[in-house]
Amino acid sequence: MSIPDERDLVRPAASGHGRHIPPASLARLTVYLRVLGTMMTEGIERVSSEELAEAAGVNSPKLRKDLSYLGSYGTRGVGYDVPYLSGQISAALGLTLDWRVAIVGAGHLGRALAGYPGFGSRGFEVVALFDADQMAVGQEVGWLRISPVEAMESILEKTRANMAVLAVPAEAAQGMCDRLVAAGITSILSFAPVVLQAPAEVQIRKVDMATELQILAYHAQRAQVSALATDAQARILR
Ligand SMILES: NC(=O)c1ccc[n+]([C@@H]2O[C@H](COP(=O)([O-])OP(=O)(O)OC[C@H]3O[C@@H](n4cnc5c(N)ncnc54)[C@H](O)[C@@H]3O)[C@@H](O)[C@H]2O)c1
């Protein structure tokens, strides 16, 4: 490992807490958190910003900027304290809270999410899985049993769910969103390909793989065009 830069030691700075973190930085913080988690399992206690940035696939000025949103700054020659920084990012992302997730819709996606073992270690516990299909109700997915959507409100209360995932068809999404909001859920991740309406205090995140693929295709096409242009220029100069 290289010698850590002393600016790398992260200290809490009261002024930084509660600052708005831009979405791109927020996304990168989750990557730093994952990298730091791996470092902790490897017993690494300190890391320089260059090493952390390289492991996360970003440049170190960007990493420093992202960490500045946590109210963190460093002191020359020490490096980041890995467990401390990890705790600091977790706190900023709200992961030290108890997130109890209910999944609505136990089809292909809902079952895959409910059966994924990786959420627990990242602070999310799937506590309920609902479906409208009576044939699906009662089936086991991992350690969960699919509950009837008719009983959703009482089960949300009993399980103290505070976050929901919508994995229902588009036509059912708004109705289920309304019921979740009426039941007090204010954080919803939706996979349904539809724009959902909800009060301003409700956070809705939409996951749209098709959009992501389109963006990927756009970048791939631009890279191709630029490679062709470079090639053509090289031919002319030859
Ligand atoms: N965002 C993405 O990248 C992405 C990818 C795949 C699928 N999707 C979307 O995710 C959703 C689920 O996809 P899927 O492949 O799992 O579909 P699916 O048909 O396999 O599952 C949908 C499930 O929802 C249940 N359901 C229907 N109405 C319901 C209601 N009111 N309450 C509770 N359950 C209800 C159905 O019985 C079914 O089990 C769809 O809207 C789909 O378009 C999004």
From TrEMBL:
Q: SUPFAM superfamilies under this entry?
A: NAD(P)-binding Rossmann-fold domains, Winged helix' DNA-binding domain
**Where is it chiefly localized?**
cytoplasm
Q: Which InterPro entries match?
A: CoA-bd, NAD(P)-bd_dom_sf, Rex_actinobacterial-type, Rex_DNA-bd_C_dom, Tscrpt_rep_Rex, WH-like_DNA-bd_sf, WH_DNA-bd_sf
Query: This protein is called what?
Result: Redox-sensing transcriptional repressor Rex
What positions does the DNA-binding region cover? 31-70
Record function comment: Modulates transcription in response to changes in cellular NADH/NAD(+) redox state.
NCBIfam families in UniProt: PRK05472.2-1, PRK05472.2-2, PRK05472.2-3, PRK05472.2-4, PRK05472.2-5
Q: Name one Pfam family in it.
A: CoA_binding
Subunit info here reads:
Homodimer.
Return the similarity comment. Belongs to the transcriptional regulatory Rex family.
Any idea where this protein resides?
Answer: Cytoplasm
User: What keywords are annotated for this sequence in UniProt?
Assistant: Cytoplasm, DNA-binding, NAD, Repressor, Transcription, Transcription regulation
Q: Where is the CoA-binding domain?
A: 94-195
Provide the transmembrane region boundaries. none
So where does NAD(+) get bound?
A: 105-110
Q: Which Gene3D superfamilies match?
A: NAD(P)-binding Rossmann-like Domain, Winged helix-like DNA-binding domain superfamily/Winged helix DNA-binding domain
